[in-house]
Give the backbone structure.
Amino acid sequence: YKRSHHSVGIIGAPFSKGQPRDGVEKGPDLIRAAGLVEKLKAQGCAVKDYGNLTFEEVANDEPVGRVKRPRAVGSANKRLSAAVHAVKSDGHTCVMLGGDHSLAIGSILGHAASKAELSVVWVDAHADINTPLTSPTGNIHGQPMSYLIHELQSKIPVLPNFSWIKPCVSAKDIVYIGLRDVDPEEHYILKSLGIKAFSMSEVDRLGIAKVMEQTGDYIFSKVKKPIHLSYDIDALDPSITPATGTPVVGGLTYREGIYITETICQTGLLSAVDLVEVNPKRGRTEDEISSTVSAAVDLIQGCFGKLREGNHSSDYKMPVP
Ligand SMILES: N[C@@H](CSCCS(N)(=O)=O)C(=O)O
Ligand SMILES: [Mn+2]
Ligand SMILES: [Mn+2]
Ligand SMILES: [Mn+2]
C-alpha cells in the first residue's frame, strides 16, 4: 500500500477580463473559504498558499480587431506565468485558482518554463482554441490554447502585451475531455491538427473508465511528460456546477468529473492544475453557488490522492485497550 506525499502550491488569480461577466474574479477566495487548504492538509498534503495575485489596471484597453481586453489579459498572464514558475521552482505541484480560462495562457507558460515538455489535459465543455481571427466573440477565455500550440503560430496576429508569449505545447501532447460546445472553426482546427479529443459522445460511447485508459495510453505512448491539467468547472453538468459563465447542458456527472482527477493523480505525473470559471454571480441561489464551489474543492482533492474508497495515513495505528 503506497501513499504518495503531495506538496501543493496554491495561487489565486482573481481575474475576469478574458470574458464579459463579473464575478469570476471571486473564485479563488470562495474556493479557499470552502476549506481547500485545510482539506488538502487533512488528506496528508503539504500545502503552501501563495495568496492572490494582484493585476495591473489597464486603461483604454480597446479591442484589437475582434480581441477584447488584450492588454489586461496579456499583462495578467505575464504576471501569472512568473508566479507559476516560482511555485514550480519551489518543488510544488501548482494549483491555479481562477478566474477565467484565459489564465491558462500564463499558467501553462509558467509551467513550461520549469518543465521542458508538457502533456496538457483540457477538461472543458469548450475547446478554447479559437484564434484571434476565428473567435466569434473576441473573448480571450475562448482562445487560450491558440496562443500556446506550436502548429498554430502562423495564424496568430501581433497583440499588445502578448509579445512575451511563445508557443510551448505540441498538438500531439494535448487531450480534451468533455467537449460539447465547439465552434466550427475550432472543430476545423482540432481535426486539421489531429488533436486527441474525447467529446461527451465518446464519454457516452466508451464510458469514463475507457476514456481515461485511452488518455493514459495516448499520453504515455510517447515519453512520460509532466501533466498540466486545465479543468474548467463548466465541464461538469450545470445541474452540479451552474455558477459559471458559459454553462452547457449534457455535461460530466460529478462522479465522472472526480474519476478524471483520481486517475490523473494515479499517473504520478500531475505537475500543475488550473481550476477556473467558478462565478458566484452566475448562481441563482446560494445552493447553486455552494454546489459549484464544493465540486471545485472535491475535484482538487481528487487530484491529490483523495479516494472515494477512503484513505488512511501509512503511520496509522489502531487504538488498543
Ligand atoms: N467558443 C466560444 C465560447 S468559449 C467559452 C470559454 S470557457 N473558458 O470554456 O468558459 C468563444 O470562443 O467565445
Ligand atoms: Mn468551458
Ligand atoms: Mn474553458
Ligand atoms: Mn500524485
Notes: The longest helix spans residues 70-89. The longest strand covers residues 46-52.
